[in-house]
Amino acid sequence: MPITELLEKNAEQFPDETALVEINPERENKGEQTSWKEFSLVELNYREDTYRREISWKDFDRRANRFAHLLLANGVNKGDKVGILLMNCLEWLPIYFGVLKAGALAVPLNYRYTADEIKYCLDLADCSLLVFGNEFIDRVDEIRDDVPKLKNLYYVGTHCPDWAQSYGRFMSFCSSRKPPVEITDEDFAAIYFSSGTTGFPKAILHKHKSLVHSAACEQEHHGQKYGDCFLCMPPLYHTGAKMHWFGSLRSASRGVLLRGISPKWILETAAQERATNVWLLVPWAQDILDAIDRGEVSLDDYDLSQWRLMHIGAQPVPPSLVARWKKHFPNHQYDTNYGLSESIGPGCVHLGIENEHKVGAIGIAGYGWETMVVDSEKNPLPDGKVGELAVRGSGVMTCYYKNEQATKESLSEDGWLWTGDMARVDSEGFIWLVDRKKDVIITGGENLYPVQIEDFLRGNDKIKDVAVIGRPHERLGEIACAVIELKPNFEATEDEIYEFCKALPRYKRPREIIFDKVPRNPTGKIEKPVLRERYGASSLVSKQTGAQIQIKK
């Protein structure tokens, strides 16, 4: 069964029930709301300034059908690729499902990508059409003539650029009936992007059966049922947000997209929309708790009696955070989710709401998943031994698109995915992460790739060598720390380096600077384990070298 059948089933059984809600908390007039119905001119119902918009399952399915017909009319054939570059909005998921209904592959793009990164990903995925929003006009304009296979650009929003087509205008002429395209669960459905320590994104290819498996996994873990409400804040380009929402799709329950993050907005929306299930990143949970403790928000002001589950993923979760959360929300169930885009997002390992006593572990194999820990020769290790975590299940990717070598390195012939994460299994069967085999830094749920930052910093004439590592941070989980070795007879200040780094996207800029020698082994490789040991503690002064560390707030 393809994932599109779940949408069609909901449209048939619950046509007038609300499927999705979009909340724009920055809109001052909270009385202004729009029900996203089928109008003859779709663009007339597009409102960027509306506080609340909603769509029913019937209209969700019709919009997906319309976009599928639009793609077919533009020569998009089964197996073609369509890029999606949008902030979270009510249009996002109908567009995604419209791509799938046309038999094409959806290619969601990170909204933080620079113009060059957008071009790289569009080229790598062979995208022939791109759907983009207002926030990306300048970036798309910069590269639109430099992607050879990109034939069409569709713009979602008002004031369409003259070099793009209006999504709303052209959708109004398309049929809302199911398109005549046969799709099976063995058909390819989507390409997601990830990256290793080289910093070059890899295109991860998934079939429909992967998406369907993630929906079943999510519902089995978190028990979504008809009448529930999932509050979603992370970006939909990320497998985590979308695959958690797939539990709502499978149970025909409501999803709420909150456009904006603050403790007040989260609590207000959870109360207003009667959210039962909320997925948070560590920084957002920390912010809510800090706001409560400072008296900036009061739980007495919100009716949150329906909120039953808070779960966290995308980065290590401090046990102290969960303990603190339970003091304020003692009736909440809690779960931790572990996954990779290669395993169609979260859920291949999860703690389980019945296992709060094991907070700190990432958990056990998820529904329909197998796990093992292996040595360097891929042989299974006994409990207690540290090795690489491997997972296997129907949600494992098909391959890295157009990268046979990387696929061979990450997938075994019998379906095991080598995660690159070092872990151990305790005597009760719970998996604990020890370290990441790859050097990826996870800060606030986003991946940073040290080599990209290192290569940039080496462009400074005063820098001889540089190594970027992750250091613990109470709110963000980790932050990027740059260890910089200056050229002989050169001097530089931390502020000078921070000023130089302003040419990087904000989220890629190092938050700490250390001036010290960069250790390398006899083969010339940076000895990052040495640096992690030296600077991994919370002390801001290295005991070994006395090197000073400045934190950029």
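(ticket continues) Second input and output from the same batch:
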Amino acid sequence: MPITELLVRNATYYKNDVALVEINPDVKNIPLVTWREYSLIESGRGGAFRKQMTWGEFDRKANKFANLLLTRGIKKGDKVAILLMNCLEWLPIYFGILKTGALAVPLNYRYTSDEILHCLKLADVDALVFGPEFIGRVEEILYQVPRVKNRFYVGDDCPSFADSYDRLIEYCSTQAPSVPIDDDDDGAIYFSSGTTGFPKAILHAHRSLMHAATVEHAHHGQTRDDVFLCIPPLYHTGAKMHWFGSLYTGSKAVILRGVSPEWILRTVSEERCTIVWLLVPWAQDILDAIESGRVNLSDYHLEQWRLMHIGAQPVPPTLIKRWKSIFPHHAYDTNYGLSESIGPGCVHLGVENVHKVGAIGVAGYGWEVRIVNEQHEPIQSGVGELAVRGPGVMKCYYHDEAATKEVLDTDGWLYTGDMAEYDKDGFIYLVDRKKDVIITGGENIYPVQIEDFLRAHDAIKDVAVIGVPDKRLGEITCAIIEVKEGMSLTEEEVNAFCMGMPRYKRPRRVIFAKVPRNPTGKIEKPLLRRTYSSEHLVAQQNEIKMGKEE
């Protein structure tokens, strides 16, 4: 059954019940004021804008956008990209695309104009929906993608090169389009990337999307009474696929456009949230705010909050011990997944296995997992590569047959590139990543892109970028820079040069040293990680010790 049928069911049976709420703490910056549906929330702890949508409104808006696309010539199999910050319109737009039989193509809102251009071309995108934050980036690459003739702008002051989404859907029919869709039809393209730079396009069928909803419900047992708090970006498979549990049960979800501990706790309190998915840095920030006294838990109503789960990066066991000491009644869970396996859930710890914190878990609902050697033969002990199989595995890397064959075999096994091992009870622990991608605060950073940028500096002979452990973010980027003979370079000069990169890609640490390469010319990154990761941990421990002494 296509996942769009769940929305139709909810609109039929729960028509007037709230489906989505958007909370925007920044009362001075509401870019989508044309919606006229916000209400101002004020209290002693500050104000915010709140907007909500029922299941009936959700389905009608999806139908309106679907019909708009159809009138513009978008047909089954076409691709429609979404470049929006989290907002209430995001999901109705996504489902409107699916209802036409077209493929939804979510884009990372941190992409540069070059990355947007690459993704639009690679995925053969036919239409683009974008918001006010992206006007400059879209305009910069507009004429390099003549195929994207339909450009819909969500917000005030529509630019001349786009059409107003808000204005056009007013005149569209609310009737569901009669486009037949089955489980094997293509449904969405998501993007991922390894250390080679630009993202790969990951093609998923409708079957994958529906399986994600089934898995999320099976793992966390949502009911109609649950309220899910969604903070991570909706372009990512993780946030959306966890929200699919709310879609599955017809329960309310809250989209929070802010990550401060105060606003997370206030939203949980005022919206009566029961399930919250966090990234490691956000959980640490909440604990730090509570332990420092900046946040007083007695100011909030949190008794209904039953589940805190974390994904997108390794979880320090000490973090969960701290969390459980403050919130002993919370169930805890973690999920492992990747965009090629439709996000979280192919490996799952399970709320009953909190004693195994540190493991990523066992096979998720409807999934098979195994650890294999270099010949892709299953092994029961020692370290090998993690492989997964199930209805949520991608169909292929779109337009990249060679890359597909590297990770997906003819029996449906997806080789993740992550090295893992079993413990004596069959729980899986990640040992190291086969790929060099750096995960900082749940976001993937691709070292080659940063290395290529830095090599443009006149004083840099060679450079390697690695991830080093960080207490809050999991990892931070560290640039090892080899300076040309006879030249000088300071960390301040490197930081100034890196202002030309997006902020999240800028190295957080700079080390001046020789960059080791093996006989074939490849950078010896395992050696660099062993050397500088341990050094970084010692530095962190010394900082903590000094802080205590002071």
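Agent notes: The chain is about 30% helix and 25% strand. Confidence is low (pLDDT under 50) at residues 30-37, 540-550. Closing as not reproducible unless the customer responds.
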